[in-house]
Amino acid sequence: MSEKKMQNFDIIILGSGLAGSILATILARHNLSVLIIDKNAHPRFAIGEAMTPDTDLMMEILSHQYSVPEIAHLSSFKNICENISPSACGLKRSFNFIYHRQGEEQKLQETNKHGVRPSSHLFRQDVDHYMAKVAVKYGARLLEKTKVLDLDINSQGVKVELEDGEKFTSEYLVDASGYNSLLSRKFNLREVPTRFKTHSRSIFTHMVGVERYDDCVTNGRNEDEIFWYQGTLHHIFDGGWMWVIPFNNHEKSTNQICSVGLNLDPRRFPKTDISPEQEFQNFLSNYPGVAVQFKNAKPVQNWISTDRLQYSSHSCTGERFYLLPHATGFIDPLYSFGLVNSCTIMLPLASLIMKAISENDYSTENFSKVERLQQKLLDYNDNLVNCSYISFCNYNLWDAWRRVWGLGSFMRQAKAGLAKSLKIQAGKAEELSKFNLDNELYRLTPSYEGLGDGFFQEATETVEKVESGLLSPEEAAEKIISLINSIDFLPDNFLQLGDFSQKNIDLKSDLYKSEYIRFLSWIKKSPKPEIKKCFDYDMADLLAAKSKGNIKLKLLSIVYKIRQIFLNSIPNLSFNR
């Protein structure tokens, strides 16, 4: 038999999960020849199912930046229902946290609801399959159930040999395959031991018959607009947490599945030889406030049990290759940072890949700023989650620390919302040849940059002192609240983050409305350089972008422009907003 002819592509992507398929779609949309190789096939079970408002915004930005409307189809509950299927998603109206003590009934005063702009839960087998088909529609070639036998990357290009003997070459390669990253093994990129401080393992499955928590504890009564079942539910306890992610929590869904996962600190709860299903049942027997939700629940997938989840890499790029976040490292699913970090990195990365191919320049230095951002995002997530696990030992400490997370979430949405508005104002996708990486990275920095000198570092060190016995949980909680209250630029309805009496915090107000404009207006005159760096924009452009379809903001935009003309005509005049 004659040897098969070698085929050449501009780029090869390993892995056709959501991140790999989105990147493949973008590159194929811009006329690059793309090959996706995956050892599995769609549709398939996958986790990483909880979207956040931050992720929604990044999806919208990616869609607009690269003129791919199908990415925006994933950016909201409404869009998924209309463009994919109502059964492909659940409704996410909130992050809900319920604190438990072993052997005790749950105390409703130790619960917290964190309302957010409506988002969604992704039924990944449908959503991932949809996005892989979109990539193919734009011209990418997808090889499923295909194993890579050998891989060679050098200054001349990329060569891939498959198990069946077929061979491919490309100019560049992206690893989107996750934990079992081929490139991390090929180039010995993993850090052993990992640098991450978080310690957790997980058991998880999909179930049917999971009760709505509202029905379990309040007989359907609700004192506010936030329902437990209309969000991502987190059961918190000393040593770990559980997620409950429903896909059947809206009237249009015919999907009765609920995603359930139990995450444990293996130093407190070592992995044993018992089955994950039995371990889950043992856990329920110790936590009656959780067990009530699962009295009729049955798994519809085999339980999966992991070893320690955390892994990291000392590098995620080299000449002619790049590892996406999940191939580089992973922390824990708490706060659902995985997908938003992937979208954040793909925003500049796609442009850099196009530029590298057009200029035939694949030097590592061209990707170094994105690599630093990616590693920084992972480190921030590690500190946030590690301090969360520490804070689980005491409800008051946990209540204080989850406000730090809420504050970071607001900052991340503010920066992403600003980036989206400016891109829309700039017109249909800035020309990629004019892509300004430095400006882009300023707006993609981790959540807490911009909160003042050392805010997050001091908050982190405060919680870590509890672990080392240098502070009591109560002392640490009070200090964290004091740190939050020292921030002097938060909008009025965010001041509740620094008030322990405010048990439930509803941040659902649309960040594009006038209060957000006032917040950014304050930022513009802030004396703090780190804030200005993160929120670099032209106020007139922002107001023009925000004013579309909003009469009040149109008037505000006009007034601002008139005022600027007036000020420019009198150079020495001082005008305070």
Task: Provide a quick synopsis of the model.
This protein is of the alpha/beta class and 577 residues long.
Overview of this protein structure:
- The strands form 2 sheets. Strands 3, 4, 9, 10, 11, 12, 13, 14 and 17 form a 9-stranded mixed sheet that branches.
- This protein has helices at 18-29, 53-65, 69-72, 77-83, 124-137, 182-186, 213-217, 276-286, 288-291, 325-328, 338-359, 368-391, 395-426, 437-442, 455-467, 473-485, 514-524, 529-534, 539-546, 551-569, and strands at 7-14, 34-37, 89-100, 111-122, 141-143, 148-154, 157-162, 167-175, 201-208, 232-237, 240-246, 258-264, 298-299, 304-305, 317-318, 321-323, 505-506.
- The chain contains 20 helices and 17 strands.
- Helix content is 40%, strand content 17%.
- It is an alpha/beta fold and 577 residues long.
- Helix 1 links the parallel strand 1 (7-14) and strand 2 (34-37).
- Among the domains are: 1-49 and 123-194 and 311-368, FAD/NAD(P)-binding domain; 95-120 and 199-305, D-Amino Acid Oxidase, Chain A, domain 2, CATH 3.30.9.
- Mean pLDDT is 85; it is low at 428-434, 509-515 and 536-577.
